[in-house]
Write a structure and sequence with these properties.
By secondary structure, the protein is an alpha/beta fold. It has helices at 25-39, 55-59, 68-73, 88-98, 123-136, 150-156, 172-189, 207-215, 240-249; strands spanning 3-4, 13-18, 45-50, 101-104, 107-111, 141-146, 163-168, 193-201, 220-225, 258-260, 271-273. The protein has one domain: P-loop containing nucleotide triphosphate hydrolases (Rossmann fold, 3-Layer(aba) Sandwich), CATH 3.40.50. Helix content is 35%, strand content 20%. It starts with a strand and ends with a strand.
Length: 274
Amino acid sequence: MPSFFYKERFMTFKLAVTGKSGSGKTTVVKGFLRVFQEYFPEKSILLFDNDLTSELGHSFGLDIRNTIYGIRSGKHEYKTGIPEGMSKQEYVEWAMEDIVVSLDENTDIIVSWFVGSKDCRCPITSQINDAVLKLIERYDIVIFDCEFDLKYLNQLVDTDIDTTLIVANPTDESAHLAKRIEEFSAKYAAGNQLGVVINKADGSDLNALYEFLKRYDLDVLGVIPIDEDLKTHSMDRESTIVQDAIKQFYFRLNLPQVRAVSYTHLTLPTILLV
């Protein structure tokens, strides 16, 4: 299928997915990955695992030991020190590139395993920030799998997020927690899109949940039905049910959009970035 993109408008788009452990956050991240790969097969994608459990890497069958934390702490293979003739910033940027793991021709993953602190005035804090910024700007799309909320990501790197999704389950407890996550995350979202995705919806009436979230000014951007198969084989976090649901509400998100276009003398299906 031929595709035409307005290249000057396709800068780095950044999606952050937050939520408590067990909400299905990593499954949603992988769902978005598959949708991006389908919609934009030529675009480069970086998966950024900023969750301390590192489940995202495990879902691909990977045991990624070299992390951003390892660079900061001097552990793993970076304990040998800075090569002669290389500045500390150059070293950090080289190490950052070195820990990126390729998943396929256009998709990479990097694991943070690091909760930093902007209160730390040590040079490595700004060096890590600059190196991460330089890395993510090389990609067309970056998906952040976040630790609970945006605070921990912000402590690692200062970058604008186009859309932040809070993954919540269809329970009162999860809705209350979604509000707490929104409170922690709002100032880091910098006025960009921030909303809730209800995951594992079981067909029960969601009106009360909608009303609760509405009272707290939380937008419900999408609903994902439960995939019963994930209960028995959830290790790879792959679900066509999740992917299909994402496609249903994708148009609401502040992310690169696709639409069909037609030309007078062309009948070929075309995808255009708008």
